[in-house]
Amino acid sequence: MADQIKINLSTPAPTISVNISGRGQKGSDGTDGADGEGVIAGGTEGQVLAKLSDDDYDTTWKTVDGTGTVTSVAVSGSDGIEVDSGSPITAAGTIALGLNKTTTLAFLNVEDGADVTDTTNVTAAGALMDSEVTNLADVKSFDPTDYATAAQGTTADSAVQPGDDADTLGSGVATDGQVLTADGLGGAAWEDATGGGGSMTSFTLTGDSGTPQTISDGNTLDVAGGTGISTVAGATDTVTINVDASQTQVTALGTISTGTWEATDVAVAHGGTGASTAGGARTNLGLVIGTDVVGFGGALGTPTSGTLTNCTGLPISTGVSGLGTNVATFLATPSSANLASAVTETTGSGALVFTNTPSFTTPILGTPTSGTLTNCTGLPVAGITDSTTSALGVGSLEIGHATDTTLARVSAGVASIEGVNVMLASGATSLVELGFAASDETTPLSADTGVLTFAMPFSMTLTRVYASLNVGPTTTAVQVDINDAGTSLLNSVLNFITTGPVTTFQTTSFAGAASSYALSLGDVVTVDIDQGDVAAAGLKITLAGYRT
Q1: All domains of the chain, ordered by start, with CATH?
Q2: What is the pLDDT of residues 92-103, one digit of tens each?
Q3: Which partner for 103 in 32, 80, 208, 279 could form a disulfide, CB atoms 3.0-4.6 Å apart?
């Protein structure tokens, strides 16, 4: 076969293959090719490399979270239980279990074909047949409380029964003086008594008086009655003591708190009156009404002493002495007029006056050493004392009628009428006003700076700013600011609001909330419109104050 040389120009890369029918010598090794894909970089400890698809080298590092899919479940049996079918389960199904008879009987140690109804088998197992139990119903309804305990006896018949003699209650035979003692186990035993026992052989009987008597074992105690008292012995070892109401020799019974006392009159010698009537009692006691005692409504005369704490009805006019003229009349009828007639050295007339908001009628005060007339009115001009050395100490003065103009002092050397400064000290000038138009009358105002600029023609103290609009705002409030050398001289901008709408504005509050602002000759004053409106027009500014 001739040698063949094949050239493959197909993608991904052209190759050349040489097919030579003969075998020549092995050529030298070619150069190593480029490294393969290998394992991708990254990953953390514990992660595993997982395929993302069937493509080569399409892998990623994944964390194993312990979950997975069970692909097969198998069950095995033991001790007589065996698997009949269905194990293992690889998809879905049922595993059937069964019992192996031979293995099960061997495990339970039961012979094949054993008869549990056979007496021989039951007896060999240590059990009883129903026929062997004579009280089967009682056994089935067994109640442990119906049977004796081990400590009480081996059978119910040998346990202690109601009505048994004391000898049968304890173990052994009791001797004289022994007591039955519980053993804590449901039984009892006869034992000698220790502590707290014994018998009384005698006791001592005492009375309010007389010699104490010793009553010994075998003696008879006789409870005998006395004067006005009788005793009755009963069949139940009880002695009843009775007071004999028929006796007349009871001399002391103490305090009788209840009941009715019925007896003859108690003699005077024994603390009584010796009578059952009031007249007889006075006669027996030698008492005469009006001489020895005072009867109801009688006259006391002139007692040497007495306490009238609880007495009432004492007349002031006749029962009390030592009162001043007309004092008794005032005490009986405490009016202002009666008080005035009861006291001396009075002045004026009328009602009694107290310190809390009293009302006086044309009083003459004289010359008081001090006083505050803050709320006083009606002071006549003639009542003001002339003085060339001190100022009139009032804040304002009304000229003419109360509704007329008010003259007030503003500051040193400055006076005002109705709040407008009109008078100054010597060397100063009077009120001055500067008015300017900051726009025409119809063009709507828009936000702009320096809509009006002027230099002060003189120095002045600014005390009030007036502003007005020919047409008020309808959409947004118009805000106007006035500056001195670029800095606002107002405490807050002039604000024309839409409600109304507002067309005039004035302020007396200047920078720093001051009540005035000083402008010097040559100061440049500018007017800015900080916020305009589509309708507002005709802005005018007036500066008011006084020249300095």
Answers
A1: 432-547 (2.60.120)
A2: 778 787 777 777
A3: 80
